[in-house]
TrEMBL record:
It comes from Halorarum salinum. InterPro entries: GAF (IPR003018), GAF-like_dom_sf (IPR029016). This is GAF domain-containing protein. Gene3D superfamilies: 3.30.450.40. It holds the Pfam family GAF_2.
Length: 393
């Protein structure tokens, strides 16, 4: 987005009885804008009603009372005085009348740019603060749909963009999971087409100032002038659009990349958890069918492990398993308790020999092997398998 003052609104306050038309015209030509001239009390009245729309006030007089009135009418708007005396009222700059319109216009332009930069920094800080809450929400999401909803909310509410779309890659195609577009996103794109495809394939953010001349423009997309597009890893892309050209800059990309990084992290976590759930279900099915006595032990963060489940073979060999009890009370031998407590948060299989009384009567020597596994939402877990010559010849 180019640094231009063509959209700047400069109010030129002309004192009553003074010839200011020429000065207003020259200032406008120097700045490349159309100034808003107002005479006498009309200038202060204008500011009382429309100060938020004004970028800078130029007062073509150093008369103290009038400068004071202008300053009080719009204290947050930069005020430049064109005159030879320093008024007592607070002003942002004074340009001597013998400096000419060139000097005055340069001072006004510099002041507008500084003010806009301050405004941009203030806006950036406000957006970063707002993003903090949304980032935590996105990171904690428990479903893809939650991630999508929170990403769209972050983009439209915290960052105040009007049009956005979050498209996820499925089967080589982009699927719009969430959007605020003014039209139905029925256009189908492969993950190699359009600005979205370029973003996805390169895994680099794209800033398109003039979409209609972009080589990857999709002609079926209506009324798009600018695009800011960021990758969400291999999950998809996040885009904001507008009808205006040159609407976004690098700062816009930086904000969107913050949202995108949290979305990528959340979607990657959900994908890992989905894979782990499938593996866990497969392991539990195997667990239930094992002919050897087997238990499932798990531990929450910072808590001691508990006996979470036992298969039918374990119940047959050791009836009335205290499922739900801590390991320290669920198993009768010190050898078992130590193995579960010491191995549940480690890697690799460990085994010990234990002696247990069985339902058949008597005491039997067994090899107890512990296998750690990853379980979604659980800090640590694993299976304990009791093997003897009787159960596994």
């Amino acid at each position: 987005m180019p640094d231009t003052l063509t959209d700047a609104r400069v109010l030129v306050a002309v004192p009553d009885g003074a010839e200011g038309a020429r000065a207003v015209s020259e200032l406008g030509e120097e700045l490349g804008v159309e100034p808003v001239p107002k005479r006498g009390a009309m200038a202060t009245e204008y500011l009382r009603d429309l100060a938020p729309t004004v970028d800078c006030i130029v007062c073509l007089s150093d008369r103290a009372e009038w400068v004071k009135d202008l300053s009080e009418a719009a204290p947050s708007v930069p005020l430049i005085v064109y005159g030879d005396h320093t008024p007592p009222a607070p002003v942002d700059g004074i340009v001597a009348s013998d400096g000419g319109m060139g000097t005055l216009s340069k001072r006004v332009a510099d002041q507008i740019r500084r003010s806009r930069e301050r405004d941009r920094l203030a806006e950036a800080n406000a957006k970063l603060t707002a993003l903090g809450a949304y980032s935590r929400e996105i990171t904690a999401c428990e479903s893809v749909e939650e991630v999508v909803d929170n990403v769209v909310d972050a983009v439209t509410e915290a960052l105040a963009y009007g049009e956005c779309v979050l498209a996820l890659a499925e089967g080589g195609m982009f699927v719009p999971y969430g959007d605020t577009l003014p039209y139905e996103p029925e256009i189908t794109l492969t993950v190699a087409e359009g600005v979205a495809g370029r973003t996805y394939q390169t895994q680099e953010s794209q800033l398109v100032d003039k979409y209609r001349t972009d080589p990857d423009r999709n002609r079926r997309v209506p009324n798009v002038g600018s695009v800011a597009s960021i990758p969400i890893g291999d999950h998809g892309v996040l885009q904001v659009t507008t009808e205006r050209t040159d609407a976004f800059d690098e700062r816009d990309l930086e904000f969107l990349e913050i949202v995108g990084s949290h979305a990528r992290e959340a979607l990657s976590r959900l994908r890992r958890e989905s894979v782990l759930r499938v593996e866990r279900d497969r392991l539990h099915a195997f667990f239930e069918g094992l002919p050897a006595p087997t238990v499932y032990v798990e531990a929450e963060a910072g808590d001691p492990p508990v006996l979470a489940d036992a298969n039918a073979a374990y119940d047959a060999a050791f009836p009335d398993a205290p499922v739900g009890e801590p390991v320290e009370t669920a198993f009768p031998t010190e050898c078992e308790r130590r193995l579960y407590c010491e191995s549940i948060r480690s890697e690799g299989c460990r085994s010990v020999t234990v002696r247990r009384e069985t339902a058949a009567g008597g005491t039997e020597s067994m090899t107890l092997a512990f296998f750690p596994v990853q379980t979604p939402g659980i800090e640590a877990a694993g299976f304990g398998v009791y093997v003897s010559d009787v159960s596994l010849p």
